[in-house]
Amino acid sequence: MFGEGSASAEIFFVGEAPGETEDATGRPFVGRAGQKLDEMIHAMGVRRDECYIANVLKSRPLDNRTPLPAEVELCGPYLVEQILIIRPKVLVSLGGPASKLLLKVDTGITKLRGIWTEWVPPSESGAAPIPVMPTFHPAYLLRNYTPQTRREVWSDLKAVMQRISELKSATKK
Ligand code: URA
User: Fold this and answer.
1) Which fold has domain 4-172?
2) What is the phi-psi region of residue 161: left when phi exceeds 0, alpha when psi lies from -120 to 50, beta otherwise?
3) Among 60, 92, 108, 141, which has the highest number of CB atoms less than 10 A from its own CB?
4) What's the chain's average pLDDT?
């Protein structure tokens, strides 16, 4: 399950791995977590088909377990190529595995979320670093739907929209 969205997307969401519904349909984020992601995207005032959505893993881990480091290593280069083709203005990493892979850290998502970092492309690509906003995975939000987690995710998403509007006004000048 590769990914989907606009080839000129400004926002690129990176999830963890396809779940059962994604595996069956060949589309990312179409199950329950996908509905939550759709709500998040809608709240940002953009359309899902204007964004790009992909996962770290391209196939479903057995029993929906967290991806193994060896699986992340195998699939990682595909994600790198996807990002280099789309060249979004901003990457939003959803949850721990995506954030750890893009930022090359081993820190938990609770510490990473809400803080801008950069994804540094392979030097041979010649591409510029891309800002990354790590936030909670929508499936985590479904399990922990508290005023605090909702406030935190909303604050992360607002920061993304703010950054995009700053980047746009900087290129107009
Ligand atoms: N969770 C993910 O991380 N990705 C999907 O595509 C669906 C659920």
Assistant:
1) Uracil-DNA Glycosylase, subunit E (3.40.470)
2) alpha
3) 92
4) 96
Q: Is the CB of 15 under 6 A from ligand 1?
A: yes
- Where do the structural domains in the chain lie, given as residue ranges? 4-172
Cut 0.85: pTM above it: yes
Ligand 1 pocket residue status of 93, Cβ below 6 Å: no
In 10 A of CB 42, how many CB atoms?
Answer: 11
Best mutation site among 2, 13, 16, 79 for ligand 1, i.e. most ligand atoms within 8 A of its Cβ?
16
